[in-house]
Amino acid sequence: MFNRFQFLFQTNISRESQMRAAINQKLIEMGERERLKELLRAKLIECGWRDQLKALCKEVIKEKGIENVTVEDLVAGVTPKGRALVPDSVKKELLQRIRAFLAQHST
Predict the structure, then answer these.
(1) Beta carbons of 50 and 44 less than 8 angstroms apart
(2) Which of 7, 27, 48, 85 could form a disulfide with 33 if both were Cys (CB 3.0 to 4.6 A apart)?
């Protein structure tokens, strides 16, 4: 049985999901999502993140052995560290670009 808090929490999550989907759709329709992905790729290469991620992959492969590692193992072992290694400046720049895009294209 839901209490009022649980209902409000579920409703808020649903609204948030709908809002995210709408924003994503707008980014795709306007071609901004691809531009943001290209910007992100360039920034990650520029700051050395890509090289760090390659080193993490090599480390996981070395620990488990090339014959014993699966793609799933690699993704599971590297993803959390990879996300943590993204510089705050890159995250902030992307967020600013998204906010500017939404402000410019809000309906």
Answers:
(1) yes
(2) 27
94 CB burial (10 A radius; 0-12, 13-18, 19+): middle
- What per-residue string of b and e applies to 23-59 under the rule 16 or more CB within 10 Å gives b? eeebbeeeebbeebeeebeebbeeeebeeebeebbee
Q: Which residues have C-beta within 8 Å of that of residue 94, sequence separation ≥ 6?
A: 36, 39, 40
Rounded to 10 deg, the angle between the 4-29 and 32-46 helix axes is 90
Q: How many CB atoms lie within 10 A of CB 16?
A: 10
Kindly give, in sequence order, each residue whose CB lies less than 8 Å from that of residue 84, ignoring residues fewer than 6 positions away: none
Cα of 84 vs its chain's centroid, Å: 11
pLDDT digits (tens, 9 = 90+) for 16-68: 888 889 899 999 999 999 999 999 999 999 999 999 999 999 998 999 899 99
